[in-house]
Amino acid sequence: MIKRTLGRTGYEVSALGLGGFQFTSMFDVSPEEADAIIDYALANGVNFIDTAQCYGGGESEAIVGRALQRHSGADKPLVCAKVGHLHEGILAGMRNPIEAFQDPGKILAAIKHSMWLMRIDHFDLLLMHEVEREWKADFDTGNCVCMEVLEQLKKEGIAEYIGGSSWDCNALARMVKTDRLDVVMVAGGISLLNRWMYDELVPAAKEHNVGVVVGGCLGQNNRFLVTEDREGVQKELLNSSDPRQAAQGKKLSLLYDLADEMGITMIQMAVRYVLAHEEIHSHTMGARALAHIKDNIKSAQMGPLSADVVARIDAIQDLDRDVSGSMKLKEFTVVSSK
Dihedral (C-alpha) 280, 282, 285, 291: value to the nearest 10 degrees? Predict the structure, then answer.
């Protein structure tokens, strides 16, 4: 497994990580299957796991906590945790849970609950989840209550490194420039359909030596990205009166042609495409079954795509640059439990 240095943290992380969003009962994954997914990943070169308070209502954190008990030696993974969605967690019973986002005591209570679930006394990485949401963060200064809490925890050694996550590449780029983040995690910033994170976020991260993690590169199980669905593309996208949908359909058709030409699956092409971008330190792909993590690791073991294939994919992505309001991946993401 390829390892890369996660920016200023100095952590050596696997270029393919494991996302913790999908291995919970929210997606009908049993505890035994979740344990098997993590165990297989760690036995086959993955050393980086992402989780968050809202993943499965805390179940993901508990699953990761069990894994840390089983893997406490040389195979102990690095864990990227996130604080956020406070109105959906242990604070949901507040009269106005949205107020918790501006209350340092409530934020800290949620963080301590995560530590309890994961059975840890400190975080490798602790991120503000979705910086563009209820935090009321000033992206150009980084100022917000949560940032103050994270920075204090870093001073106390409870969080080794801190950062932020978002679907909004521009917001993260602006916060990176404040030099207050050690790591960023962007969802949907790169896929076979786009590479929005390269407009501003990647240059800023390189300048400030900030670690870069990506997720959501398959549109969170979007069927057009995980398999070739030419009939669906024709019916739902190419025949659409929305020019943005039609542009997505055209790009997907060309990507299917390229995958067929190379004799690889869409997932293999996506994994290897992201792997070809050295500025991305880890790609935390989700898995709902043991077969999924096996396929992801097999894809990564095939190695990065060649420069000429990457250039061909980039050219396909650029076909809709002249389409007004071309779609960000979040607009093309449908979270399915199937």
Answer: 130
- Long-range contacts: 105-109, Cβ < 8 Å, 24+? 107/83, 107/145, 107/146, 107/149, 108/149
Rg (CA), the chain: 19
Task: Answer yes or no: are the C-beta atoms of 14 and 281 closer than 8 Å.
Answer: no
179 vs 190: CA distance, rounded Å:
23
Taking CA atoms, 184 is separated from 29, 134, 165, 278, in Å, by: 28, 18, 6, 15
pLDDT in tens, 174-211: 999 999 999 999 998 999 999 999 999 999 999 999 99
Burial degree of 201 (CB within 10 A; 0-12, 13-18, 19+) = buried
Dist CA 298 CA 293 (whole Å): 8
- b/e per residue 122-133 (b: at least 16 CB within 10 A): ebbbbbbbbbbb
| Three-state DSSP class for residue 166 | strand
The type of residue at 226 is V
CA distance linking residue 76 with residue 47, whole number of Å: 7
Tokens at 238, concatenated: 């190419």
pLDDT given for residue 334 in this prediction: 45
Asked if residues 18 and 49 have their Cβ atoms less than 8 Å apart, the reply is: yes
Which residues, 6+ apart, have CB-to-CB distance to 155 below 8 Å?
Answer: none
Q: How far apart (Å, rounded) are the C-alpha atoms in residues 138 and 147?
A: 10
Query: Is the pLDDT assigned to residue 67 strictly greater than 60?
Result: yes
Contact 16, 271 (CB under 8 A): yes
Token pair for 9: 């943290």
The residue that leads in pLDDT, 325 or 93, is 93
Q: Take residue 191 and report the two structure tokens written for it.
A: 């896929």
For 229-272, write each residue's pLDDT tens digit.
Answer: 999 999 999 998 888 888 889 999 999 999 999 999 999 999 99
Rounded to 5°, angle at Cα 207 from 317 and 280: 45
**Chain-centroid distance, C-alpha 122:** 21
Give which of 77, 58, 73, 63 is closest to 32, Cα–Cα: 63
Which residue type does 96 have?
Answer: N
